[in-house]
Amino acid sequence: AIVLVDRRDRVDRFNPAAEQLFPGLAWGRRWSEVKDEVVASEPSPGDWQLHDGRRVSVSQRPLNDRGRILVVVDTTDQRRMQERVERQDRLSAMGEMAAQLAHQVRTPLSTSVLYAGQLAKGNLNEQQRQQFGGKLLEGLRHTESLVRDMLAFSRGGNFSSSPITIGDALKMAVAALQPRLHQMEAVLELDLDEVGTTRIAGNQDALAGAFSNLIDNALNHGGTRVNIRIGVLLTADESLQICFEDDGPGIEPAVLPRIFDPFFTTRERGTGLGLAVVQAVILEHGGTLRATQSKQGGACFEIHLPLLGSPEQQQSTSRKQVS
Q1: Which helix (H) or strand (E) holds 49?
Q2: Given Cys at both, which of 83, 110, 175, 210 links 281, Cβ 3.0 to 4.6 Å?
Q3: Taking the CA of residue 196 as centre, how many other CA atoms within 13 Å lie in the half-sphere pointing to its CB?
Q4: Which residue, among 190, 288, 183, has the nearest Cα to 244 in the 3D structure?
Q5: Are strands 39-44 and 11-14 parallel, antiparallel or unpaired?
Q6: Alpha carbon 49 to chain centroid distance?
Q7: Among 93-97, 173-177, 265-269, 317-321, which stretch is predicted with the lowest mean pLDDT?
């Protein structure tokens, strides 16, 4: 549809397609009045929602001193097709995730059912009963861990935000893993370097959980006596940088592009959700996360978080309030 509007905002010329889109269109009428009669809303500049449900795309250009010309394209069918494709993509993603979750749960669940059946037999001695009971408990704990990680991943950034100290979140994460660190004879160095009192806007429990996942990841891949270093510093762009480094086997280059994908894991009993949860939490805090090789030869996870009051942090907080 094409509409020519003069400099007095009066309709000067139009084609038949414009008459179909704007029934009240007539020579000499004010274009603003015609528009008000037909247009219900403007979701974005150049995108109009009409009262009859149609969506149109509008472009306009000035015509020297003679007013302006408007070109209106009906995009209703195109948008419906796009919405249908997007809906199908979402359903496909949900189906794939459900299939992956079912596959992950089936293995420990089948193991638990097997050992529960063995425990039901009446001719077991005490040693066999303890052995089967331990295997059953191990399978159930694995299933519980998978479900917990899945819930944490699905919640993403659904947490309350308040001013917190980054050092407190890191110390909480380290304290939660002290028994496992001691058991594996791991050495953990926490270097706050006078920025441990730096404050950000976020959720201490969510960040501590994400930091715990990174430490746990280093323990899972580094093995006994792994050395882990956590360093915190302020960058030149006034953001907070947190580096988790270890001297384990590192990350294979072929694995690196998929390391944060949900359900992707290189461990036989891994859930594939730990690092996906970490990424979701960091992104919802307005930060960034990337994985590289550390100088010690192992893995390095580098986090950047905006400081309290920075534009990035304000934008992240505003997004949570809207959602």
Answers
A1: strand 47-50
A2: 210
A3: 13
A4: 190
A5: unpaired
A6: 31
A7: 317-321
Give CA–CA dist 218/243, Å, rounded: 12
Q: What is the pLDDT, as a whole number, of residue 71?
A: 96
Q: How high is the pLDDT of residue 192?
A: 84
> Measured between alpha carbons, how far is residue 274 from residues 148, 218, 303 in Å?
10, 12, 15
Q: Token digits for 222?
A: 């580094």
Judge whether 267 and 259 are in contact, CB under 8 Å. no
> Which residue in this structure is represented by tokens 């009669």?
37
- Cβ neighbours of residue 155 closer than 8 Å, sequence gap 6 or more: none
Q: Mean pLDDT for the chain?
A: 83
Residue 321 scores a pLDDT above 60: no
- Name which of 54, 89, 88, 87 is nearest 73 in CA terms: 54
Q: Answer whether 83's CB lies under 8 Å from 14's CB.
A: no
The whole-angstrom distance between residue 313's C-alpha and the CA centroid of its chain comes to 16
Q: What is the pLDDT of residue 255?
A: 83
Q: Which residue has the tokens 């394209």?
A: 73
C-alpha span between 129 and 119 (Å, rounded): 6
Does the pLDDT at position 76 exceed 50? Answer: yes
DSSP-based three-state secondary structure for 125: coil
318 neighbors 308 (Cβ within 8 angstroms): no
Report, in angstroms and rounded to the nearest whole number, the Rg of the chain calculated over CA atoms.
29
